[in-house]
């Protein structure tokens, strides 16, 4: 893979500076101040003009999860992440949401520097391409700051919903080591994690903090045996024998040999299509270093290297479903893929994710009092795909059963300079002026797969050997008939007329036609002013100008205020504009995968809006999304009760979203699908006859997301030495369309956009220490939601999942923990509409966990 000379130059600069040892700068206590949301000068959380949650090491360690995504989901009710077992690359890099907005509308920082994006572009919804937060091991974190407010004017594109800032450990000595193991109550999904941190001095004025994590988890299966009215393997299921297709599949399901072979159709489980978490293993490393150069100058560097691998299933392929079909071979005999897979097959998708980054910079203070921070950043995310237990149907008997469909990569380089200065302008307090500029270069690359993964074999077309001329056998056809073939050209159902799909079934590889790189660069200039106008009134104003090589420039701004009504009650509010430029990945990614409407596999392609395929069906080039954010809230301390309440509204115009799939068919029985096919043919699209559906990203509609965040803490004192610390947080979030989406989304997609996710989410955590024993109880509450399918609506009731943990200190530095997540084994309601076919019992993309109870034990030692 080619890398730009600029990338190499920046890497050389970063690497050389990283070798110089930095003394940690002692900041204020993290529970009291936050750096996120304030340019130039930290401010206490209660006096911040915008809502900021700060989670220190104690809060982070209280969460039993090791995946940082799940840690945030537990601590921040407005942060959601789901498990999507059959979602192409979403199996390996999970998309998340903050305040109901997808990951790419939340800016992720590490030590206040932008984190690079993952290589994966989610193929549905908004086409999310955000950072892979799972690559940041929780053991490396000193704290996490979550800014729940739009901040594009301060930090740039992507900060529409908010900002998450991960602060790395900066210890120069000591460390910790943790081993954690657990399993679900179903007896599967065994997980082990070993994590550690060590702090080392760099000379007398520096530190090097190194954190690492190794994890492994086994798959889970929450499915029932595959059964639909088109094909059913469970003879005890009420659907068995129902439907017009029963006689067609009974010849297989009532054959003991086929049923025995079907137990091996999947590489995992004798249920042909398991639903659950994937097999996964990972090794992750993060370092944070600093060195005091004297005279107020500090050199710093931090970075990571992560390798992970996971695998998950696709849909089960049963006989005569368009993939496992009888084919007439060149000698006139009949071939069936059942010769390779006698019980059908379930493709298994593997992803190898590599992620690394390096950031280095110099910061200090000039004699004039102006502070500066000049930095360079490089980041790369790459995912390489492998597909096993499948075929390229068009290759017939020559097809292999394992493929390498290709590789995706996202690369970023950024140069940045930030400055701040206190100005004495005759006001009550100095005015803090912060300003800066940055340059960023981004590249997204699709590298082609092995030729077999995208090859169009002979069986991609009917009668590949020229046996028939209409209903009459040709000379070649007559020759194989004379040799004993059952060829019958007059029979329209003869296998000679069967055409099957092209490419590795489940995920065709990237051909040279759809491979390539997409690059852009951008620069930005920002300014930020803040001051206390009076003893009670704080104001902040910010503006940012950004220019992209592939889009017009944008100017956005923000105004925020905080006013103390009394010594214990404060009001705060902000209003700002923002934008998010479509990423090179969203503009360039291609994905052809197999979907199963009504149980029948269809090759469905996501194509770039600028491609000939999408353009033929009406696509237009993407443009930036723009937004307006408004928040209003208050903070209060009522004796021991600390309370924050914040209302927010986020209006997004020209929202990027995937249109509902446009059917394509070379059969004129469906006029709309046939018209789409003719449009592709007229546009000269190669292989149009093998495409069953097309969708693309477009600026589809305008939306409004609004809600309320409530966070409260209270120390419940039983005696002078016995206190239970209680934290409660609730989020109400609602999204709605503010323009007509019907041109782009079908009725089901429109309804689910507004109703599928729970509008209410809350968590209450209680912690209590009794001598050497620490107890924690947490209740996670998910409100009701609705799902729409074929004119029917299913109401899902609320769910409460309870976590318990007991930690015992064996010594002052060693403790052991026993605990359970979702100890009452609560699940969301099962699907009653038939919206989730093929063995799925629960809506797999819900934010409500559907894996059941999990019990674990961990050992931790600090040194």
Descriptive report:
By secondary structure, this protein is mainly beta. It has two domains: 654 residues, TonB-dependent receptor, beta-barrel domain (Maltoporin, Chain A); 35 residues, no CATH class. Helices cover 10% and strands 45% of the residues. The chain is built from eleven helices and 42 strands. The chain has a 22-stranded antiparallel beta barrel. Strand 28 and strand 29 form a beta hairpin. The longest helix is centred in the first third of the chain and has 14 residues. The protein is globular, with a radius of gyration of 29 Å. 50% of the residues are buried. The N terminus is likely disordered.
What are the salient characteristics of this protein?
863 residues; mainly beta; Maltoporin, Chain A; 22-stranded antiparallel barrel; five-stranded mixed β-sheet; 10% helix; 45% strand; disordered N terminus
The gross shape turns out to be globular
Strand content: 35-45%
Average pLDDT value? Answer: 89
Number of domains: 2
Layout of SSEs?
Blueprint: H1 5-18, E1 33-34, E2 43-44, E3 52-56, H2 57-61, H3 68-75, E4 79-81, E5 96-98, E6 101-102, E7 106-110, E8 113-114, E9 141-147, H4 152-155, E10 162-168, E11 175-184, E12 191-202, E13 206-217, H5 246-253, H6 256-262, E14 279-294, E15 297-313, E16 327-328, E17 334-335, E18 348-365, E19 371-388, E20 402-423, E21 431-448, E22 468-469, E23 472-473, H7 475-482, E24 516-532, E25 537-548, E26 554-564, E27 569-580, H8 584-588, E28 591-595, E29 602-606, H9 612-616, E30 625-638, E31 641-658, E32 662-663, H10 671-682, E33 693-695, E34 697-719, E35 722-737, H11 747-755, E36 760-770, E37 773-782, E38 785-789, E39 792-796, E40 799-809, E41 814-821, E42 854-862
Parallel strand pairs: 7-10, 29-33
Antiparallel strand pairs: 1-2, 3-9, 4-5, 5-6, 7-8, 9-10, 11-12, 11-42, 12-13, 13-14, 14-15, 15-18, 16-17, 18-19, 19-20, 20-21, 21-24, 22-23, 24-25, 25-26, 26-27, 27-30, 28-29, 30-31, 31-34, 32-33, 34-35, 35-36, 36-37, 37-40, 38-39, 40-41, 41-42
């Amino acid at each position: 893979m080619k890398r730009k000379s600029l990338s190499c130059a920046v890497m050389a600069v970063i690497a050389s500076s990283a070798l110089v040892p930095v003394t940690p700068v002692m900041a204020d206590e993290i529970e009291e101040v936050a750096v996120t949301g304030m340019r130039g000068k930290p401010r206490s959380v209660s006096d911040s003009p915008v809502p900021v949650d700060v989670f220190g090491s104690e809060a982070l360690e209280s969460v039993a999860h090791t995946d940082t995504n799940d840690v945030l989901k537990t601590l921040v009710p407005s942060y959601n992440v789901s498990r999507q077992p059959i979602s192409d690359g979403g199996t390996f890099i999970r998309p998340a949401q903050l305040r109901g907005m997808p990951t790419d509308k939340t800016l992720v920082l590490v030590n206040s520097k932008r984190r690079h994006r993952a290589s994966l572009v989610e193929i549905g919804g908004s086409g999310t391409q955000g950072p892979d937060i799972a690559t940041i091991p929780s053991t490396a974190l000193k704290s996490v700051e979550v800014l729940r407010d739009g901040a594009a004017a301060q930090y740039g594109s992507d900060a529409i919903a908010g900002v998450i800032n991960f602060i790395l450990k900066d210890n120069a000595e000591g460390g910790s080591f943790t081993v954690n193991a657990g399993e679900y109550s179903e007896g599967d999904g065994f997980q082990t994690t070993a994590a550690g941190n060590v702090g080392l001095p760099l000379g007398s004025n520096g530190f090097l903090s190194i954190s690492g994590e190794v994890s492994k988890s086994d798959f889970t299966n929450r499915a029932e045996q595959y059964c639909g009215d088109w094909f059913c393997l469970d003879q005890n299921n009420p659907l068995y024998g129902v439907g017009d297709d029963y006689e067609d599949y009974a010849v297989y399901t009532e054959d003991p040999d086929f049923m025995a072979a079907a137990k091996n159709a999947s590489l995992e489980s004798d249920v042909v299509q398991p639903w659950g978490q994937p097999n996964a293993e990972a090794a992750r490393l993060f370092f944070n270093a600093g060195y005091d150069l004297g005279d107020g100058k500090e050199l710093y560097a931090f970075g990571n290297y992560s390798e992970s691998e996971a695998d998950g299933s696709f849909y089960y392929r049963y006989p005569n479903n368009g993939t496992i079909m009888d084919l007439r071979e060149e000698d006139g005999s009949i071939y069936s893929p059942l010769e390779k897979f006698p019980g059908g097959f379930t493709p298994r998708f593997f992803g190898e994710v590599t992620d690394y980054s390096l950031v280095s910079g110099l910061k200090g203070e000039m004699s004039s009092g102006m502070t500066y921070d000049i930095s360079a950043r490089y980041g790369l995310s790459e995912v390489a795909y492998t597909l096993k237990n499948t075929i390229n149907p068009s290759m017939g008997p020559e097809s292999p059963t394992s493929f390498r469909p290709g590789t995706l990569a996202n690369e970023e380089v950024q140069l940045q300079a930030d400055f701040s200065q206190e100005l004495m302008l005759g006001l009550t307090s100095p005015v803090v002026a912060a300003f800066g500029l940055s340059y960023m270069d981004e590249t997204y690359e699709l590298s082609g797969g092995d030729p077999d993964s995208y090859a169009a074999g002979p069986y991609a077309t009917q009668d590949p050997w020229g046996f028939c001329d209409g209903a009459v056998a040709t000379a070649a056809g007559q020759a194989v008939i004379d040799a004993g073939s059952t060829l019958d050209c007059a029979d329209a159902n003869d296998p000679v007329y069967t055409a099957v799909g092209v490419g590795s079934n489940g995920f065709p590889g990237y051909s040279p036609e759809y491979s390539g790189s997409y690059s852009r660069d951008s620069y930005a200039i920002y300014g930020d002013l803040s001051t206390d106008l009076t003893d009670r009134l704080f104001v902040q104003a910010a503006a940012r100008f950004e220019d992209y090589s592939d889009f017009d420039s944008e100017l956005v701004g923000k105004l925020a205020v905080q006013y103390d009504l009394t010594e214990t009650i404060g009001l705060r509010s902000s209003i700002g504009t923002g934008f998010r430029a479509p990423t090179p990945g969203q503009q360039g990614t291609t994905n052809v995968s197999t979907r199963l409407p009504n149980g029948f596999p269809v090759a469905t392609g996501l194509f770039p809006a600028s491609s000939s395929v999408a353009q033929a069906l009406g696509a237009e080039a993407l443009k930036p999304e723009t937004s307006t954010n408004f928040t209003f809230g208050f903070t209060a301390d009522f004796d021991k009760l600390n309370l924050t309440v914040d209302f927010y509204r986020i209006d997004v115009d020209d929202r990027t979203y995937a249109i509902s799939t446009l059917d394509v068919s070379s059969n004129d029985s469906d006029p709309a699908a046939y018209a789409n096919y003719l449009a592709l043919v007229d546009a000269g699209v190669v292989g149009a006859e093998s495409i069953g559906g097309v969708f693309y990203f477009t600026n589809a509609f305008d939306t409004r997301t609004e809600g309320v965040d409530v966070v409260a803490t209270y120390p419940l004192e039983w005696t002078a030495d016995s206190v239970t610390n209680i934290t409660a947080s609730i989020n109400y979030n609602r999204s709605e369309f503010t323009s007509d989406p019907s041109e782009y989304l079908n009725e089901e997609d429109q309804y689910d956009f507004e109703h599928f996710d729970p509008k209410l989410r809350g968590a209450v955590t209680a912690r209590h220490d009794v001598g050497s024993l620490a107890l924690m109880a947490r209740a996670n509450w998910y409100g009701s939601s609705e799902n729409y399918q074929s004119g029917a609506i299913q109401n899902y009731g609320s769910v409460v999942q309870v976590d318990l943990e007991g930690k015992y200190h064996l010594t002052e530095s060693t403790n052991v923990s026993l605990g359970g997540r979702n100890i009452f084994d609560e699940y969301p309601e099962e699907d009653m509409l038939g919206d989730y076919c093929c063995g799925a019992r629960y809506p797999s993309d819900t934010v409500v966990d559907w894996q059941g109870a999990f019990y674990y034990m961990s050992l931790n030692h600090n040194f």
